[in-house]
Amino acid sequence: MMHVVHLSYSDVSGGAALAAYRLHRAFPDYGVQSTMLVGSRRSEDANVIEFRALHWAPRSLNRLLFRAARRMQRRFLRPENGTFMTHDWTYLGAQIERQLPPADIYHLHWTADMLDFEMLPRLAVRAPVVWTFHDMNAFTGGCHYTQGCERFMAECGACPLIPSQDPEDATYRVIQRKVDALSKVPESRLTVVAPSRWMARETRRSRTFARFHVELIPNGIDVQAFRPMARTELRAKYGLAVEDRVILFVADMLDDRRKGMHELDQAIARIAHLPHLKILTLGETGGERMPGPMYRHLGRVNSPEKICEAYNLADIFVIPTLQDNFPNTVLEALASGTPIVGFATGGVADAIEHGRSGLLAPTGDVAGLAAQVERALMDESLRVEMGKAARARAIECYSHERQANTYAALYRRMLSQESSVAHGERLRTPYPAASFLRA
To answer: Within its chain, how far is the Cα of 395 from the centroid?
Structure first.
């Protein structure tokens, strides 16, 4: 059986980690033995290994060491506007490399503060590497989302997020080191996976990864865990009335500027005249500060069943994110049969068929977002039809089965290519063109 080892900062903490873990859990049914090596383990999965810099030390001390190393690394990239930035190296890179189990394929996910780019050439010698880009950090000078900056296409430097006027600042040096490390990795030994067409395009525009092959494989969702529920009973359980017009907003960090809470507040102000309007928020921080009696913060919820209940409480799920890859929240809403209204950003535009499974407005167009929210809330028949279409789209396009099978096929192609090279065969183009290039 093919053995894949995933490298991820966490197993279930954060959207990217959760996407990786969901894939890991789906693999055993499709002929893939899967193991995860993570910096912070939150699940009880026996196939998830937590990194331990000191093998002789207790788990608590190792976690403390890992967190301390992260804090020290972050001294070197300090944006002034709250933007999250990550270096290309880590103090613990050598120890992490030594702890990676042998594998047929190494699959990298969100590896902030874990992956040292200098490790990539050695990793590619050990086994072919697949790297799923959950954000833009791999090909930028440190930021995880560029906020419209396009310096990553060249050399970064003079970074507006630090901010800096120096053309050879820390972000410039990060890009140079990434380019140098990747120059030692053969194209056939590393394949990038982009969950969205937007991420695939940005990867191909980058200086760092433009020469590597890019596959388009959307994230997947367990369509049995996330499903339509009886809404009337749920609302009674949560103290909501049947006639309430309920909007749901979900983000890991609700006060993350990129997630669009500010734009949502502006849109809500435009439709505040609607009767029985309620806004539910789900996430870790920021929701407790939402003003007015129409808001209700559900806090951070980890149980898939409880998260599914939140989607089923709502008439619509609103995602006003300003820049995003392929949010898990969109998949969860689709599978739950909850219509989606949002900005046509990144993978959000991939997943939602405007007018069928949801409604979209141009990114940043608050008036347009408000109009689409009002349209969805006021047209019950439209909501019903969009909910049915959303559920059908999740089953047809984004099931775990489809995702796991597609990844397993990619692994087999990469290993087959390695076998052909080993036997001296001349290879043509190793993979068919990604679907976003054929479109």
So the answer is: 20
Cis peptide before 228, with omega less than 30 degrees from 0?
no
Helix (H, G, I), strand (E, B) or coil at 363: coil
Q: pTM higher than 0.85 for the full model? A: yes
Residue 266: per-residue pLDDT: 95
d(CA 224, CA 234): 18
For helices 304-313 and 231-238, what crossing angle results, to 10°? Answer: 100
Pairing, β 358-361 against β 32-40: unpaired
Q: Which among 322, 241, 318, 231 has a CA at the least distance from the CA of 279?
A: 318
CA 254 to chain centre: 16
Token pair of 379, please? 């047209």
pLDDT, tens digit, for every residue of 83-132?
678 888 887 777 888 889 999 999 999 998 888 899 999 999 999 999 99
Per-residue tokens: 159: 């970074």
* Residue 213: C-alpha distances to residues 175, 180, 324, 431 (Å): 19, 18, 22, 8
221, 232, 257, 288, 343 from 369: Cα distances, Å: 26, 27, 17, 23, 7
Q: Which helix (H) or strand (E) element contains residue 172? A: helix 170-182
Token pair, residue 343, equals 């900005």
